[in-house]
Amino acid sequence: MPVIILVRPQLGENIGTAARAMLNCGLTELRLVAPRDGWPSEKAMSASSGAVDVINNAKVFDCVADAVADLDYVCATTGRQFNMNKPIDNLEAGVERLSKYSRTGVLFGPERTGLELEDVIHANSLITIPLNPNFSSLNLAQAVLLLSYTCYRTAGLPEIDDSHRHDKTRPATQGELDGLVQHLVTELDNCEFFTSPQKRPSMIRNLYAAFGRMEPTEQDVMTFRGVIKALVAGRRNPPRSL
Amino acid sequence: MPVIILVRPQLGENIGTAARAMLNCGLTELRLVAPRDGWPSEKAMSASSGAVDVINNAKVFDCVADAVADLDYVCATTGRQFNMNKPIDNLEAGVERLSKYSRTGVLFGPERTGLELEDVIHANSLITIPLNPNFSSLNLAQAVLLLSYTCYRTAGLPEIDDSHRHDKTRPATQGELDGLVQHLVTELDNCEFFTSPQKRPSMIRNLYAAFGRMEPTEQDVMTFRGVIKALVAGRRNPPRSL
Fold this sequence. Notes:
Oligomer: homodimer
Structural class of chain A: alpha/beta
Distance between the termini of chain A: 54 Å
Number of helices of chain A: 10
Largest sheet of chain A: 7 strands, parallel
Number of domains of chain A: 2
Radius of gyration of chain A: 20 Å
CATH superfamily of the largest domain in chain A: SPOUT methyltransferase, trefoil knot domain
Helix content of chain A: 40-55%
Number of strands of chain A: 7
């Protein structure tokens, strides 16, 4: 079952009702990124209607990158269209995709605005819950409930055995993926690859999106870091023939 | 889409959030049987977050029999077991059953107790939402949401528009992908990356697999070729500081 990650949640009540909805569906791991009104929260505890363990065991992080660093696969829930090349699924397909990984998380944005571009960078794919196009704004806890219930229902179905895909390795964590892209960006800065400062952020987002879609294994990440090192070390020790 | 019938609801807030959840899923007909705090309700209107028409058009009845009199088929949602010979379905099967009739309704009980035997008599079948057996008590609006969403999904889905993913580009061809990997391999050979000749073929296969999973766009391929060129050009013109 995925970790539920509430990004900059505003109201303690909504954190509590989200925790209740999670536990209704057997989900127990809650993470909070920079909750607006601080933590712990009396209002969250009270609104959880008894989902005390979920609230007490919630972990708080300063930023999304830290909150997802140990996870294999992360989905971001959003109703917005981001101009980035990541898979976009409806709820059922997104949960199906999540169910293929062992340590997963789902990001939910703040009540008023939803997730921002900077948050979504840290997700492998997006989930858009298909709703009435004329009235599509879900309460935070309602969104958490629909996701949690769909996970709960999906977990009841037999899974396809595709264990041979990762025979001698495992999916890279988000932290390893982040380290790879940061390594590449550092070296690209060193050789002045980003000639346009305006375009640098969007090019970096595209690199994150591309490597995220790759769904690299731990071995893949090591290989690509070796590739970058080799190309750079070659530079530092230029062959005589050049 | 079914009529949602709240039987003796206690809190105006819950009526409002239930109305919001209904409209999120395209349901618009709300009926109330003997709401505890009277009707109309300022709290319901405020909690509906803009589902004004659902609230304003809600009809109030004195008893369940009157509230369902014009309907073809009625389901009662309950977590309790009643000793009566009526079909009991889970959420999906219950909604499937409902979808075979044209004028349908679904009964939801009061927050604290749920539906009583006298209410359930007026239903053709029962729906029990399968939840965590150790923590199965759903908030009223959450129960309405799960039912409404399942109806909305069963009625047929709008497709997610992800055309903006490839706004200014297109998926790379296999030839472009091959060109990228060949370019990388050539440069890796130049800097003697493949230290083991035995492993070289399988490492190249892994590079193909990784970039294949990435499903790069034409733009991505150009970017990565630029990345390789930049790292290599940096090598050929080493910065003075190194």
